[in-house]
Amino acid sequence: MSLYSSSSIDPFRNYTLNDFKNESLEKRLEILTTTVNHPIRALTYLSMEAGRIYSNGKELLEAFLEFVGISADLFYKEKEKFKDYIPIREQSYWSYVDGTIPGMGTLTRINLVTRLKIGLDKVGYVLTEFGKIAKGFVSYILKQFAKLGINPHDLFGGAQTKYEKRSPVIMIKIIEYLSNVKETTIGEIVEKLKIRESTVNCHLHQLKKLGLIEYKSLNLLRGERIIYRVDLQKAKELLNDINNNRIKIGRSVRKYAYALEYILGYIIKNKMEEITIRDIEELGYSRKYSYVIVSPLEKLGVLKSEFSGREKQSIIKPTEKLYEVYRRIIKPIIEVANDPDNIRKYSIYELNKKEKEELLKSYSEWKMYHGERENIIMLYISRFLF
């Protein structure tokens, strides 16, 4: 008898690949990133057998232990020795599926599993059709994280801000943008992607921590040095246009026209390839006056700052590792989100022993850092279960 027609089980919506197709693009991206952003939860999902109903945390824990190659007998005998490497409470594994606990039940929320009523007062969880299909894709993405030595949570789960609810989606957009440039600025990212500057900053610091970007910034309010690259040809053309009244100088800088001509002449005479505010100050101009002179030269393309903006300046350069992350992780996620049928191409993939160990290692390192928070969560869960 089919699992879904059993009279002992309440009817339920079996989330399918077609249901996934009907989600918005951003929702599909969020689902795909959430399937992998917590390594233990992802490995627990991969350990679940198709058609089997899981009714308690012990069943999920033991499925997980078997999947990662840890002897259940050894685990129960030496449980305390494992606490720095994996969650040791059965409730932890149950919390991945139980959507009745506030803030928990992620695998159910993203429709990899669904809740069933078994008997009069007992519930269980079983893989959906989409949950069965997605296993190969999740395995493939986790393989890439293991090979690159990156904790999935550090890329897709650790850059949340109070303003943004789709943190992994924003990270994907930023990495995709960075993969197409050799150098950029915060201002350019904000302008191109229409994302809050505070959010961009948060994600960039995470990418720098992972070694995916080189990120330099300075603050003009502290008087830090800023370099302007000079386009000598444009400097000559502009000076010629000003001298022949072929260009109008804006009203706000009209009174600085003489200084503008003087600086252009100085740049051309000395064949300067770069200039700084300090250079202009040494010619007898104040800092404030120097910025007024530089502003129209930037707008007209004579000068190009290494940094963008006034208050917060930055240079962001992607590293080779970022291009690898884009190729191995981000691009496949985007491709499946854009064409969900592509998820079937990954059905052949499974994690090997070494890759599972690498993922457990990355989680243990993360857990040691966030240990106090983990304990608080487990205490909170224990109030609701068993």
Give Rg in angstroms.
Answer: 28 Å
Number of strands: 7
Approximate helicity band: 40-55%
Number of helices: 20
Task: Bin the strand percentage.
Answer: 5-15%
Summarize the helix and strand pattern as letters.
HHHHHHHEEHHHHHHEEHHEHHEEHHH
Low-pLDDT runs of 5+ residues are 1-11, 159-164, 308-312, 369-386
The rounded distance between the terminal residues' Cα atoms is 31 Å
Described by strand count, sense and barrel closure, the largest sheet is: 3 strands, antiparallel
Mean pLDDT: 82
Tertiary shape: elongated
Structural class by sheet pairing and helices: mainly alpha
Order of strands, main sheet, comes to 5-4-6
Keywords:
386 residues; single chain; disordered N terminus; 52% helix; mainly alpha; three-stranded antiparallel β-sheet
Summarize the helices and strands and which ones pair or pack.
Layout: H1 17-21, H2 25-34, H3 39-47, H4 57-68, H5 72-77, H6 90-95, H7 106-109, E1 113-117, E2 123-127, H8 129-133, H9 135-148, H10 152-156, H11 167-178, H12 186-193, H13 197-209, E3 213-219, E4 227-230, H14 232-243, H15 257-269, E5 274-276, H16 277-281, H17 287-299, E6 303-305, E7 312-318, H18 320-338, H19 353-369, H20 371-382
Antiparallel strand pairs: 1-2, 3-7, 4-5, 4-6
Helix pairs in contact: 2-18, 3-4, 3-9, 9-18, 9-19, 11-18, 14-15
